[in-house]
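Box 4.2: Ligand-aware structure prediction
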Amino acid sequence: MPQHFINTEDWSQQALEDLLATATDLKNNPFHDALKNKSVALIFLNPSMRTRTSFELGIQQLGGVAVVLQPGKDAWGIEFKPHTVMHGTAEEHIQEVAAVLSTYVDAIAVRAFPQFQDWQEDRLDQVIQSFARYASVPVINMETIVHPCQELALMMTIKNHFPEPKRKKFLLTWTYHPKPLNTAVANSALSISSKFGMDVTLLCPTQDYLLDAHYMELAKTNCDAHGASFSISHNIESAYQDADFVYAKSWGALSHYGDPEAEFQLRQQYQHFIVNSHKMGLTHQAKFSHCLPLRRNIKATDAVMDADYCVAIEEAENRLHTQKAMLLQLLAPNYTGVNS
Ligand code: CP
């Protein structure tokens, strides 16, 4: 079975440390032929700017070829349900798509956001799991219910400013946004910060905005293994106190999943969760970041985004370096040219 990159849970901290070390080398020495004669299909079921650009360019910089497909737009729509009568709009089944692509390319990367109807169904992550089941080449997650590529970029950024992140205080704060967004980046932020032993605080308005129990339990388990702390707070002032790294993200309340109008009425009360200079002033001279895209003066103020402590652009750049390191690990593990 090929090695996939579907989440960071399946990878040890040491393996991720090795990827990040390679990413730093690639940042200094970007161009290689390690993926010569290799190709990667990039399947986008949802929009992207950073992920698409960084993957396409990263593959090119390693000598490979990227093929971008948008099923339902420039490629046939795909059916993912097993054993179904395909009366709907999809023209072909994941079994054929994954099998055919596996004969053409060396890896398949997939972006497939949840459907936002039923969290119990969405949390199974069936689209990418179907690709992994039916493909015979590595499958890479470009964001589903987690965003592991963003995790690598985030941790590369954290380690640049805190070479020893263990026991540094990481605050994940919910922010307002007019729509109920995916929980993927929030799930991922908890996963990676705890995996590296940071003291993690999840700040959100109410219990409605707690994340799926799996990711909160994972964070607790990871923190416990490092002797670090995991806490949940609904108190803005105390949560920001002494933070070393503030990470902002908006997500929809799981308690109102599939009911965006009711969720909108709820979230309207919490626009004051915006990240601003006052809140950043409560921290331990923290760095601030966000995965982007970000609505200015909704999620974070201009003053925060333009401050020296904002490292969101650095994190976005690190998508390129970390994904290249991951592609090398999956497709050319014996390549030794990065440091030469
Ligand atoms: N952060 C991120 O994944 O950006 P895109 O949605 O633009 O790819």
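In the box above, the bound molecule is phosphoric acid mono(formamide)ester. The radius of gyration is 20 Å.
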